[in-house]
């Protein structure tokens, strides 16, 4: 696996290294030892699949507050997404900066999202499937979110938004939750 740290410390784009033969290829997609060597948490407690029917569908921006903050290892196993993360660690030099990357069935790319980051993505093709492993149990009582179009972040989504959950249409903007977020994200 090839680990490339993004502009946001601790978050990584992970590419596979294919071993091809007459049948196709083989590639390692996760390894506890390699994760540890690069300083990534190797803990996985749940694995999730999300299927989105329609191009333009938006999911995010989501996070869990400590003590249930979670790492995510995100992959797009069918179709294509534009994935964006926002650094919500108050002590970080890149607090409130974001990073975006395209993940697709063709590029086999994964994104490792550290704890205390917001995460979201837009689906770029019909019938897109994401598959991701998380480092903490789903804990709805600690769930938080920000609007995908929060003016604070000026995120650049490539296409028109066609579908959004009710929950994701109701997150308060960063401006409104700033104090609470900084307090709860401080460790
Ligand atoms: C995330 C999650 C949801 N659910 C349930 C709650 C609800 O009934 C249904 C759909 O949940 P949501 O609307 O939150 O699903 P979704 O909007 O796809 O949520 C996901 O979005 C991306 C961007 C992330 O980063 C993920 O961590 C996760 O928050 O599934 C679980 O049972 N376990 C889980 O881990």
TrEMBL record:
<comment type="subunit">
    <text>Homodimer.</text>
</comment>
<dbReference type="GO" id="GO:0005829">
    <property type="term" value="C:cytosol"/>
</dbReference>
<comment type="function">
    <text>Catalyzes the epimerization of the C3' and C5'positions of dTDP-6-deoxy-D-xylo-4-hexulose, forming dTDP-6-deoxy-L-lyxo-4-hexulose.</text>
</comment>
<protein>
    <recommendedName>
        <fullName>dTDP-4-dehydrorhamnose 3,5-epimerase</fullName>
        <ecNumber>5.1.3.13</ecNumber>
    </recommendedName>
</protein>
<dbReference type="InterPro" id="IPR000888">
    <property type="entry name" value="RmlC-like"/>
</dbReference>
<dbReference type="GO" id="GO:0019305">
    <property type="term" value="P:dTDP-rhamnose biosynthetic process"/>
</dbReference>
<dbReference type="GO" id="GO:0008830">
    <property type="term" value="F:dTDP-4-dehydrorhamnose 3,5-epimerase activity"/>
</dbReference>
<feature type="site" description="Participates in a stacking interaction with the thymidine ring of dTDP-4-oxo-6-deoxyglucose">
    <location>
        <position position="138"/>
    </location>
</feature>
<feature type="active site" description="Proton acceptor">
    <location>
        <position position="62"/>
    </location>
</feature>
<dbReference type="Pfam" id="PF00908">
    <property type="entry name" value="dTDP_sugar_isom"/>
</dbReference>
<keyword id="KW-0413">Isomerase</keyword>
<comment type="similarity">
    <text>Belongs to the dTDP-4-dehydrorhamnose 3,5-epimerase family.</text>
</comment>
<comment type="pathway">
    <text>Carbohydrate biosynthesis; dTDP-L-rhamnose biosynthesis.</text>
</comment>
<dbReference type="InterPro" id="IPR014710">
    <property type="entry name" value="RmlC-like_jellyroll"/>
</dbReference>
<dbReference type="GO" id="GO:0000271">
    <property type="term" value="P:polysaccharide biosynthetic process"/>
</dbReference>
<dbReference type="InterPro" id="IPR011051">
    <property type="entry name" value="RmlC_Cupin_sf"/>
</dbReference>
<feature type="active site" description="Proton donor">
    <location>
        <position position="132"/>
    </location>
</feature>
């Amino acid at each position: 696996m090839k680990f490339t740290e993004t502009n946001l410390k601790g978050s990584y784009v992970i590419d596979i290294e294919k071993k091809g033969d007459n049948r196709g290829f083989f590639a390692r997609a996760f390894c506890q030892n390699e994760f540890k060597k690069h300083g990534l948490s190797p803990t996985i407690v749940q694995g999730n699949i999300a299927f989105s029917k329609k191009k333009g569908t938006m999911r995010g921006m989501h996070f869990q507050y400590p003590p249930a903050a979670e790492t995510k290892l995100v992959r797009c196993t069918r179709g294509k997404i534009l994935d964006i993360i926002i650094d919500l660690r108050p002590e970080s030099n890149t607090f409130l900066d974001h990073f975006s990357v395209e993940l697709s069935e063709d590029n086999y790319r994964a994104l490792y999202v550290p704890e205390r980051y917001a995460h979201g993505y837009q689906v770029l093709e019909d019938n897109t499937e994401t598959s991701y492993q998380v480092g903490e149990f789903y804990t709805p009582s600690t769930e938080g979110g920000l609007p995908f179009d929060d003016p604070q972040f000026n995120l650049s989504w490539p296409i028109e938004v066609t579908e959004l959950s009710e929950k994701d249409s109701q997150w308060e903007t960063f401006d409104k939750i700033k104090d609470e977020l900084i307090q709860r994200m401080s460790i």
